[in-house]
Structures are given as C-alpha cells and as structure tokens.
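step=encode ok
step=design start
structure_in=
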C-alpha cells in the first residue's frame, strides 16, 4: 500500500506540474507577465493542486480523518482566502466580489456543518451540493475572475468548486466512500475500456437515430486535441464525477438504502442536469443520452471504488464526441 500511494503521488505531482508549467508558458506566449500574472498562476496552481494531490493515495480522506469536522470548518475557509489573494494580487478587488464569493465558498460549509453527525444523505448535504454546483453549471461566477481574461472564468470557477466541495464533504461532513483516489491496476484499466466501449456501441447509433449527432471528423481540431482532452478531463469530467458519483450517488444510496436505487437516481439527475445544454430547452435528446452515459459512469465508480476511472470514461466519451461528431 505505501508503494502504491507513493506511485500515485508521483503521478499526481507530474500531472499538476505539467498543467501549471503549460499554463504559465501559454500565458507568457500570449504576452502576460508581471506580478498579477504570477499571483493568478499561483492561485490557480493552488486550487489545481488541491484537486489533483488530494486524490493521490487517498490523501484528502486521510488528512480529513485526522482533523475532524470542527477543524474541517476552519479548513473550509482556506479557498476564500486564496480567492482574496487573487483579487488583491491582480488589482481586481471589489467589495461585491468579496461578498458574493464569501457566500459561495462559506455557505456550503455552514450548511453542511448544520447537519452535525447525521449520516450522509441528510437534506443539508443535497442543499450544499446544489449551492456548490448550480453556480458552476449556470456560469454565474465566471465574471469573478477578470484577470487575465474572460475565458479563464469557467476554468477558475471549476477549480474553486472542487476545492469547496472537498472542504465541505471530506473535511466538514467526513463523507466516506467518495472514492476520491487515484486507482492504478489492470482491472481498473479493463473497466475503463469496457465501459467506454459499451457506451460507444450504444450512444453513437442512438445519437445518430435521434438526429443528435452526425459523424463528421473533418470538423475536428486535431492540433488542439491534447489541450482539449486535458481540459475536458480536469474541468468537466472530474468535477462532475465528484458531484454525481462520489457525492450524489453516494448520498442517494444511503437515503434510499439501495445501491441500485441510488445509482439510477443519480444517473437520472445527471441526465436532467443537461436538459438546457446547447441553448435548447428542454433538450430531451441530450438528457436521455446523458442519463444513459451516467448509468455507465456510475457503474464504473461503483465497481472501481474511485471517481477517477469514471472521470476517464466520461472524458473519453466527451472527447470522442467533440472530435469525431458534429452536434445537430
């Protein structure tokens, strides 16, 4: 086990370092520099470090067990201070940003804390999840990151949301069974390939019959594939699998006292969360396909005991879709 943890830590550190160095070089290539850029990169590196390193060898869960929920509440304030450093260091400080960011970061911690020793699946848990991920989904906080540009808004908010979720549910609520860990073995690789292959066999014909997608590899942007794939994995698949599998499905299983009931309920909610995508409401075709995908992501999480394999399957599906198909 110690050797496995050490190997996971080195992989996590490598991923984190590559992403931070890549972002710094990309920004420098576009002419950014100076103190403001250094502060922004530093804060983003902190949030990404929390996301990636806490998954290495169950580090987040092991630290949380050693702190207890009372100290966890104090830890839950750290993302707020990191955001304050960003505001001050990039000359973006305004009181309205401070007030709304404080509400976004601290309200889930306070809501979760009010659940006390209740088992996972209390109503406060669902309210805290909604408070974290609804603003991310609706992009309400994108304007809270004015430097270095508007396009960074969703990226930074996704990183912040993961940190807030981990503080709230690992440290304050002390959730078990989240599966916030990197798993490395042959069985996990097999499950990833199996579930991705089954999804491809189901979603491609069904999406074509429903006139949702059309095979069109000529529209692909092959040069940006590595960056796009990493972005999908870290900023879409990873946060969504943390929410819908590690937190929501986990809680539904306790609420319904049923593995099957929690699995299906979380998959349906996952599908409905996509019902307004692509600027269409109600987008029933998208919701149906996302529900089916959610069933396979949920099964991957349940079998492997980790959100990371589910996130990899999720990222493979999204990357294949954007690379080889056109949405109609």
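sequence_out=
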């Amino acid at each position: 086990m110690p050797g496995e943890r050490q190997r996971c830590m080195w992989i996590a550190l490598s991923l984190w370092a590559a992403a931070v160095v890549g972002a710094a070089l990309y920004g420098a290539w576009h002419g950014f520099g100076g103190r403001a850029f250094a502060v922004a990169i530093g804060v983003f590196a902190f949030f990404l470090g929390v996301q990636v390193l806490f998954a290495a060898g169950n580090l987040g869960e092991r630290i949380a067990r050693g702190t207890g929920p009372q100290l966890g509440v104090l830890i839950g304030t750290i993302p707020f201070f990191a955001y304050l450093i960003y505001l001050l260091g990039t000359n973006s400080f305004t009181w309205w940003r401070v007030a709304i960011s404080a509400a976004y970061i601290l309200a889930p911690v306070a809501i979760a804390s009010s659940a006390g020793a209740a088992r996972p699946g209390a109503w406060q848990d669902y309210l805290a999840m909604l408070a974290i991920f609804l603003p991310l989904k609706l992009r309400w906080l994108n304007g809270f990151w004015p430097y270095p540009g508007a396009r960074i808004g969703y990226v930074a908010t996704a990183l912040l949301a993961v940190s807030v979720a981990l503080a709230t549910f690992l440290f304050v609520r002390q959730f078990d069974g989240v599966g916030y860990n990197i798993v490395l073995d042959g069985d996990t690789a097999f499950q990833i390939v199996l579930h991705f292959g089954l999804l491809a066999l189901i979603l491609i014909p069904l999406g074509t019959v429903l006139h949702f997608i059309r095979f069109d590899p000529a529209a692909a942007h092959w040069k940006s594939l590595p960056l796009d794939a990493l972005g999908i994995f870290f900023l879409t698949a990873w946060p969504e699998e943390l929410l819908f599998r590690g937190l929501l499905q986990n809680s539904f299983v306790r609420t319904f006292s049923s593995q099957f009931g929690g699995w299906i309920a979380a998959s349906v909610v996952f599908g409905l969360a996509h019902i307004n995508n692509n600027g269409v409401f109600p987008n029933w075709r998208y919701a149906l396909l996302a529900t089916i995908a959610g069933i396979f992501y949920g099964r991957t999480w349940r079998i492997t005991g980790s959100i990371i394999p589910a996130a990899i399957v999720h990222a493979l599906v999204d990357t294949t879709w954007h690379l080889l198909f056109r949405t109609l």
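step=design ok
step=annotate ok -> Residues 178 and 246 are 4 Å apart (CA to CA).
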